[in-house]
Amino acid sequence: SDHQIAPSKWVNIHTKNGIVKGIFGWPAIHTRDKSNEKPPKLDNIFIDVGAKDKEEVLKLGVHVGCVITYPDQFHILNKDRFVCRAIDNRAGGFMIAEVARLLHENKVKLPFGLYVTNSVQEEIGLRGAEMITQTIRPNAAIVTDVCHDTTTPMIDKKTQGHTELGAGPVISYAPAVQNKLRERIIETAETHKIPFQRMAASRSTGTDTDAFAYSNGGVASALISLPLRYMHTTVETVHKDDVENVIRLIYETLLTIKPGETFSYFD
User: Fold this and answer.
1) Which end of the chain has fewer CB atoms < 10 Å from its terminal CB, N or C?
2) Residues paired with residue 199 on neighbouring β-strands, in sequence order
């Protein structure tokens, strides 16, 4: 999470004794040095659990290594915006689960093995994706994550490109993205009139796509992103229509893949 949002937030500290409530404190505005105003950083933010000393903190079950989460709940903003903490990337898990549900309910028999997986530790080095791809050894991978709504104030579209809420899934162009698989996704979107946007990265995508693409001698990989506002805050925001269209796009793309298809440039 972004440490700049911490001051005045409630937190849940997960202990063996259950959840202990805490708050990120911050000095009042009229007590701070205006000539040397310091932003919230990891070396100056702190959590107050209402204890008078270290001994009382330890009695609460709080110790180094306890997991701390924000308690903020799911809300709907103006009928069609979903707002919550950790939509990045719980939304990805939800969307691929919905694809699996549709395949099951529609009794679809795919001519290939399909693994629907969630990964961990993407933010600190794609670790979960590395373990998944080494275990499964896939022939192709469609990855879903979030990207920025660059119409948000203080985001520079000259460097970030133009992607926005409500305009559809974002299909990536990047070194890790295999061209034939990406074009299949675009063709599917056009065939089924699913709105989509484009995004380009000159190097890393910053997502699990990179882990899959460069594993096991190379895996045909593609990235479909969900536009999101206020990334790494407790009010991450996405559009209902985009969520539905990512699900549709992945589902319909899977239905186009033929037995033995590898997306090799030499086929």
Assistant:
1) C
2) 172
Distances (CA, A) of 257 to 112, 237, 245, 251: 9, 32, 19, 11
pTM (predicted TM-score): 0.93
Q: What CATH number was assigned to the domain covering residues 75-254?
A: 3.40.630.10
Please tell us whether the domain made up of 3-69 is placed in CATH 3.40.50.12370: no
pLDDT tens, residue by residue, 181-190: 999 999 999 9
**Which residues sit opposite 81 in a β-bridge?**
77, 239
Runs of H (alpha helix) within the chain: 54-59, 87-105, 127-136, 157-160, 179-191, 209-213, 240-254
Kindly tell me if the per-residue pLDDT of 1 is higher than 80.
no
Give the active site residue among 98, 105, 122, 244. 122
Does residue 144 contact residue 177 with C-beta atoms inside 8 Å?
A: no
Pinpoint the residues of the chain covered by CATH 3.40.630.10: 75-254
